[in-house]
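From the pipeline queue, job 12 of 40. The input is one protein chain; the requested action is below.

Action: predict structure.
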Amino acid sequence: MAQIGQEWTDEAAARERARQEQERLRQQQADAIQQGEAEAAELNKNLEARYWALQTILETGLARQPEIHFDSLKDRTPYPAFVAPPHIAESAPEQSRPAFMPRPITLFGKLFGKQRHARAVARGLQAYQDACIRREQAKRERLKVLDRLAAEHEREEDAYAERLSRQHAEVDEFETRYRSGEACAISSYCELVLSASPYPAGCPAAFRLAYAPDSKQVAVNYQLPTFDVIPEESDFRYLKARDEITFSAAKVLERKALYAEVVSGIAVRTMHELFEADTEHHIGVVVFNGYVRTIDPDTGSDIQPFLVAARATRDEMARIDLRRVVPMACLRQLKAQVSPNLSELQPVPPIVDFNTVDPPASEHGDIVAELDQQADLVEITP
């Protein structure tokens, strides 16, 4: 009977272990499904944010104030306060006289060792006095080092204040030059405007710029994102049966449409920001040449085809309600030239090709001369 009972107990324990293992596997599967669905949801959330950022490039630009406030260019970072090193800032602890003294004399010591105890007390007093002298010497040395470090910090702080003062003066001079209409200052100001404009990841936002004071034209060669800035995925989903995350491919026509929206949005936004930030009305015309940097699939060579060439006057931009326009339609209304096949990089001729300008040292002057020569000639045909 005992053997039968033991066998029954062993079978029950085995069944319980099997049940627990099944439960563990079910829970493991449930956790995997939950994790997979959460990862797919996070990917979709990021993808949605990515699409939104690309779809609202123009709106994002209109929502911010592109004007550069000169005061914001002044460095006002305070100089760090002086902090002494711990081993210098902290003094040595006070000497404790009892620590140098021998133990109190006992009754037996008073009878037979009084002189010996007196000598020990004398030695203890001398050691205490020597320790106090060393402590005072160390304190004086520490304070000398502390004074030296504090003086060095003060000199560095004064030098830093002088550098800040010079930097502030340079900003004030820059503002004066800009407001008085100096061409180089206006170019630098425009560069600050475009450099401060935020774009989604994948948009290079690199550019070259020149200002021609006689014709009041700003010309910008602006690097656009390539077609691969548009996500290939339309959504992600978790497949329970295969325990993997897969995605649906975005339709090619939809990707091309969004790319056109991105390219045209950057062009319109750039022209808007330059005019909007120009509170002194130094700019009468903005020329925008948008190009991409890529590789020619036929030759493997680096190429920079221009995809957009647009020109707008201040009055033309002022008549357009950019909050309500479709960017590509806005470019057409401005008679801009846009590649008929943006994703295939079919080029259009730029209005001003910076790549034809010779050495960097004369770059600005050459571009300005070219702009002034074209001032009365540039008319973009639809």
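Job complete. Strands lie at 207-212, 217-223, 233-239, 244-249, 285-291, 294-295, 302-303, 306-313, 337-338.
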